[in-house]
Design goal:
single chain; 265 residues; alpha/beta; Undecaprenyl pyrophosphate synthetase; six-stranded parallel β-sheet; 8 helices; 6 strands; globular
Length: 265
């Protein structure tokens, strides 16, 4: 999923960048319908957009990118589309994982993979094993994933841990979070959804609690380098307060700048 970078694009190094970006890649089917093509053609075109955003995140030194490839509700789509998506998963993973590995990208999958075919599970396991020691961008692929499933699964795992430990339950946010998907990396700072819809659609419900939500009408196959830069520019202008007042944030930034100046001197 790594291609050639465009040296004419603006440098984002001066922006306040997110550490973790989460993306709902919406609009593949509508992109195909507008061109009188089968929906499968839209999903194939969407792979190219995914290559671009992986490359852009790596270039911008984003720590993590999480993409919503297949939700637990997507099994309800027409059988031929689901079959096409499963085949596309296998061919894409096989074709791309070695390229990603060479670029130091770590690939991980989140979701209930047991419903997938043995062949797809093998492709998933092999890609994770090949890239597990890479230290660059972490690419999380949510497949057969749902935010509600994630929370329920974490609750079940926490209960098992409490029972095995033979102690009273110590249930708080930190305990539950330790069993959530992606608990070992920063939670998403920026959520991007293409295709014009303005909802989260059961994606990372726990993890997106304080993410900045960015919605764009562009259909996913058309999501360009410029669209990515626009999202980063928008994020850079956001004031992230986490329950504090704007005045508190400004004071903290002023103190940080003063501390930095003192260290520099």
């Amino acid at each position: 999923m790594i291609g050639n970078s465009d040296s004419n694009r603006p440098d984002n190094s001066s922006l306040q960048l997110p550490r973790h970006i989460a993306v709902v890649m919406d609009g593949n089917g509508r992109w195909a319908n507008k061109r009188h093509l089968p929906r499968a053609a839209g999903h194939k075109a969407g792979v190219n957009a995914t290559r671009k955003i992986v490359e852009n995140c790596a270039k911008s030194r984003i720590e993590a990118l999480t993409i919503f490839a297949f939700s637990s509700e997507n099994w309800n789509r027409p059988k031929d589309e689901v079959s096409s998506l499963m085949s596309l998963f296998i061919t894409t993973i096989t074709a791309e994982v070695k390229k990603l590995h060479k670029k130091n990208v770590r690939v991980r999958f989140i979701g209930d993979r047991l419903r997938f075919s043995a062949k797809l599970q093998d492709s998933i396991n092999n890609s994770e094993a090949l890239t597990e020691n890479n230290t660059g961008l972490t690419l999380n692929i949510a497949a057969n994933y749902g935010g509600r499933w994630d929370i329920v699964n974490a609750c079940q795992q926490l209960l098992i841990a409490v029972q095995e430990g033979g102690r009273p339950a110590e249930i708080d946010e930190a305990a539950l979070n330790s069993f959530m998907a992606l608990s070992d990396i920063p939670q998403p700072d920026l959520f991007i959804r293409t295709g014009g819809e303005q909802r989260i659609s059961n994606f990372l419900l726990w993890q997106l609690a304080y993410a900045e939500l960015y919605f764009v009408d562009t259909l996913w196959p058309d999501f360009s380098d410029d669209d990515f830069d626009a999202a980063l520019d928008w994020f850079s202008g956001r004031q992230r307060r986490f329950g504090k007042t704007g005045q508190q944030i400004q004071q903290e930034r002023g103190q940080q700048q003063a501390d930095s100046s003192s260290v520099a001197q």
